[in-house]
Amino acid sequence: MNAYDKALSFLAVREHTAKEIRAKLSQRGFCQDEIEEAVKRLIAENAISDGRFIEALIRSSLKKGESAAFIRLKLLEKGVDRKKAEEAVRILKESSEYEESVKKAVLRMMEKKEEGKALSSLARKGYSMAEIRNALKGDC
User: Fold this and answer.
1) Packing angle between helix 82-93 and helix 50-63, nearest 10 degrees?
2) How many angstroms separate the Cα of 79 from the Cα of each of 27, 35, 95?
3) By three-state DSSP, how is residue 131 classified?
4) Cα–Cα distance measured from residue 46 to residue 81, given in angstroms and rounded to the nearest whole number
């Protein structure tokens, strides 16, 4: 199997960034020239799309109750361009889906722990105090 075909098999399972595809192909012993050729072809064919990757990661992260700050970090780690990641998070924070996700995460944590520990735990997970307060007020 060549690098292009192997990359397609990765993309058949889930969306990946070009950075992820390069790393996976490199781990499997493909040479850098073949990897770059495959990635360029996949980008040209729109098989690799930052936009689709961002949407998929955000959907998955919201189901897990992850904060916008954490989502931003994940996007950057996966190789999404900084401007695209920041724009996606800005749009996310304005969405009703994110508001609901924050409310659920805050309420879940408040049920499990006493208030001080819950607030500390939520802050460590990347939620701002404003997000936490708004969720508790129901204004998120």
Assistant:
1) 40
2) 17, 16, 24
3) helix
4) 16
Strands (E) located in 11-122: none
Cα of 113 vs its chain's centroid, Å:
27
Token code pair at residue 78: 């996966």
Q: Indicate the Cα dihedral angle 93, 99, 101, 104, nearest 10°.
A: 150
Distance (Å, whole) CA 61 – CA 67: 8
- Alpha carbon separation from 7 to 2, 14, 22, 48, 79 (Å, rounded): 9, 11, 9, 10, 16
The Cα–Cα gap between 49 and 135 comes to 33
Q: What is the pTM of this model?
A: 0.83
* Helix, strand, coil abundance in the chain, percent, nearest 5: 75, 0, 25
pLDDT digits (tens, 9 = 90+) for 111-127: 888 888 888 888 888 99
